[in-house]
Amino acid sequence: MNLPECKNLLLNLDSGVLHVTFNRPESRNAMTPELLAEIASVFESIRESAVRAVVLRGAGGHFCAGADLKGMMAGGMKPPAPGEADPIVAMNRSFGVMLRQVSAAPQVVIAVCEGAVLGGGFGLACVSDIAFAHAEAKFGMPETTRGLPPAQIAPFVVERIGLTQARRLCLTGAQFRGAEALRLGLVHESFSDEEELQAKLKDALSQVVNCAPQANALTKQILLNVGKLDMDAVLDDAARKFASCVRGPEAPEGIAAFMQKRAPKWAQN
C-alpha cells in the first residue's frame, strides 16, 4: 500500500491504524479544495488495504472550522459563461463526494473532536463510526449566519441525529459544547484531557481489532443501506453477505477461536 504525499495532512500508520491529522492549524484546519482532494486520495489509497481503522484529528487543538470562506471568496463569484460548468457547484459537490467516501470506508473511522468542530468539521463528525468529543469542543453549523446553506452537510446531519434536531441546528446556526453533542448522539463519548482521550482511544481500537476486517466492512454496508433501500432488499443483501462470510476465511477462524477460547488471528497482529 502506498499512501499519497500530502501537504495538508499528516499521516502515521501504526499497527494497522492510520492516523490522519488535518494540518492547517493557522486556519483552525479550515477546508480547502486541496485538503478535500488529499482526504479523498488517502481514503481511496486504503480502500482495499490492511488498514483496520482511521483516526481523524486536527492539528493545533482544533478538529476543523469548516470551509475556508476567505479562499472561496478570493476565487471570484462571477457566474459561469453559457455552457460552462459552474466551479462553485463543482467545489461544493466535491465535499459531499468526500463525505460519502469517508462514510462508506471499509475501515472503522474514528473522529477526535476538539476545539472548533464547525461546518465541514461537523459534517465529518457525522460520517464517523465512532466519535469522541472534548468537553469544551465547540460544535455548530454557522453557514446560515454567513448567508449560506449547509448544503452538503445537512443530509448527513439528518442521518446522524434525526430531522427534528437537524432542523433546529441548521436553521439557527446554534453552537454548543461537547456535553450537548453527547446528548444529541452526535458523538459517543467525551473526554477532558489527552490522557483520558488516549485511554478511550486505546480501548476503542482494541475492540475494533477483535472484529474480523471483512465482517466489519460488510456490516457497515448493511447499516448504511437501511433507509436507502426497501427493507426486503436490505435483508436479502444482508443474507447474501452472511453466506459469503460463512464460506469465507473469517467465520471458520472466528468460530474455531471462540470454541478453543483463544483470540482469532486478526486480533493477534
TrEMBL record:
It holds the Pfam family ECH_1. Gene3D superfamilies: 2-enoyl-CoA Hydratase, Chain A, domain 1, Lyase 2-enoyl-coa Hydratase, Chain A, domain 2. One of its GO terms (biological process) is isoprenoid catabolic process. One of its GO terms (molecular function) is catalytic activity. SUPFAM superfamilies: ClpP/crotonase (SSF52096). PANTHER family: ENOYL-COA HYDRATASE (PTHR42964), POLYKETIDE BIOSYNTHESIS ENOYL-COA HYDRATASE PKSH-RELATED (PTHR42964:SF1). Belongs to the enoyl-CoA hydratase/isomerase family. This is Enoyl-CoA hydratase. It comes from Solimonas fluminis.
